[in-house]
Amino acid sequence: MKMQKAALSERIFNILTDHIAEIEKEKEPILKSLFSENAETAMESEAFFRDYIDRLEKYLKKATVKKDGADTCPFPIIGSIVEIKDIEDSDTLKCRIVLPYAGKSTNDVFDASCLSPMGKSLLLSPPGSEVTVRTPGGQVRYEIISVSIDDLDIGKSDLSFYSNKPKSVVADT
After folding, report:
1. Alpha-carbon dihedral of residues 109, 51, 102, 9, nearest 10 degrees?
2. pLDDT tens digits, residue range 80-135?
3. Which residues pair with 148 in a beta bridge?
4. Pairing mode, if any, of strands 64-65 and 7-8?
5. What pLDDT digit, counting tens, does each position of 55-95 carry?
6. Of 165, 158, 141, 133, whose CA–CA distance to 29 is shortest?
7. Beta-carbon neighbour count of residue 67 at 10 Å?
8. Going by C-beta distance under 8 Å and a sequence separation of 6 or more, which residues neighbour residue 98?
9. DSSP collapsed to 3 states, 41-109
10. Which end of the chain is more exposed for a tag (fewer CB within 10 A), N or C?
């Protein structure tokens, strides 16, 4: 994300500010529940959230609030719907970037975890950007067409499996 001074509407500035607070609140239970048994994954995920929040905060520090400022989100954030075009075959699709294990896909929008290769590639890249997503089948290049926050929903991670899982299992002998 190029850090240039942006003029934002008060509405967008407030949405981004509130978004940071919401991610701060949601990340701890996710990190503790989902990644408690894998220290490496937990550290990578913690670093991802820290970097994501830092980049948003730096962007907002450089932004100015103006009545005629941009009233659209300047880049995909967690919870936004991103319209993308496959560079190779020109197919377009819509994807909502959500928290891990928070999927609730609909027919016209699929969910991508913010920690997935797709989610990480799209986050904070402005419309018009080309991103490369590394998949098991190879690399796929997409162009970001648009970002919508009209129905901003970061998703609620379903941690029930992890919070109800026994901490340790002792085998009967």
Report:
1. -50
2. 999 999 999 989 999 999 988 776 667 788 899 999 999 999 999 999 999 999 98
3. 81
4. parallel
5. 999 999 999 999 999 999 999 999 999 999 999 998 999 99
6. 158
7. 7
8. 78, 79, 104, 111, 112, 113, 114, 119, 153, 154, 155
9. HHHHHHHHHHHHHHHHHHHHHHCEECCCCECCCCCCCCCCEEEEEECCCCCEEEEEEECCCCCCCCCCC
10. C
Domains of the chain in start order, with CATH, are: 7-155 (3.10.50.30)
Answer yes or no: are the C-beta atoms of 95 and 81 closer than 8 Å: yes
Tokens for 63, please give them: 């932004």
Q: Provide the token pair at 102.
A: 């928070």
> How far, in Å, are 22, 37, 62, 76, 131 from residue 128 at the CA level?
27, 39, 21, 12, 10
Q: What length does the chain have?
A: 173
How many Å apart are CA 106 and CA 125, to the nearest integer? 24
d(CA 58, CA 124): 12
